[in-house]
């Protein structure tokens, strides 16, 4: 069994490497762990034993000591999707959900969180739409985490779902 022990900041630009990189789809819960077993899309079982330095994000690469490279993708999972008639309504929902300290994924047109009927009812009470969907989950890592931002998406992206005073 291959054991992946290294996080890669980038993979070599050699085109032969890209053609041999395998992929694994993992849910958010698994991508938060530093040690786990998984099955590649090809059906091969692997082990992962990484340093505890953060969450594996979709698009991350990990490697074995022998140089085998693996691309990690976010697996679609059961989530609650929040949509709203206006961006401001969606912004208000992000604020209220953030005050509950739940992992929250922000997009320009929707918010996503793990199933929770109490939170769903709260958001519905604000006049927003809540539905259950299958979608990859890539929640915000928080205002103090070290990660890159893509502010081209929307002003909503700038909210880190953690607004306390």
Automatic annotation (TrEMBL):
Residues 7-70 form the UreE urease accessory N-terminal domain. Pfam families: UreE_C (PF05194), UreE_N (PF02814). SUPFAM superfamilies: Urease metallochaperone UreE, C-terminal domain (SSF69737), Urease metallochaperone UreE, N-terminal domain (SSF69287). InterPro entries: UreE (IPR012406), UreE_C_dom (IPR007864), UreE_N (IPR004029), UreE_N_sf (IPR036118). The keyword GTP-binding does not apply. GO terms for biological process: protein folding; protein-containing complex assembly; urea metabolic process. It is found in: Cytoplasm. GO terms for molecular function: nickel cation binding; unfolded protein binding. GO terms for cellular component: cytoplasm. It comes from the Bacteria. Keywords: Chaperone, Cytoplasm, Nickel. The keyword Cytoplasm applies. Its main location: cytoplasm. Involved in urease metallocenter assembly. Binds nickel. Probably functions as a nickel donor during metallocenter assembly. Belongs to the UreE family. This is Urease accessory protein UreE. It comes from Acinetobacter lanii. The lineage of its organism: Bacteria, Pseudomonadati, Pseudomonadota, Gammaproteobacteria, Moraxellales. The gene is ureE.
């Amino acid at each position: 069994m291959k054991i992946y022990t290294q996080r890669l900041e980038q993979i070599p630009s050699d085109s032969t490497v890209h053609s041999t990189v395998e992929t694994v789809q993992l849910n958010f819960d698994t991508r938060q762990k530093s040690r786990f077993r998984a099955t590649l899309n090809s059906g091969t079982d692997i082990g992962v034993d990484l340093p505890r330095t953060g969450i594996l994000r979709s698009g991350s690469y990990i490697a074995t000591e022998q140089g085998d490279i693996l691309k990690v993708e976010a697996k679609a999972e059961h989530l609650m999707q929040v949509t709203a008639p206006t961006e401001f309504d969606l912004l208000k929902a992000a604020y209220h959900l953030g005050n509950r300290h739940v992992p929250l994924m922000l997009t320009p047109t929707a918010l996503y969180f793990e199933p929770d009927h109490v939170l769903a009812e709260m958001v519905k009470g604000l006049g927003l739409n809540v539905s259950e969907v299958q979608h990859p989950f890539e929640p915000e890592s928080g205002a103090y985490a070290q990660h890159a931002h893509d502010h081209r998406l929307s002003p909503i992206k700038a909210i880190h779902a953690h607004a306390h005073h």
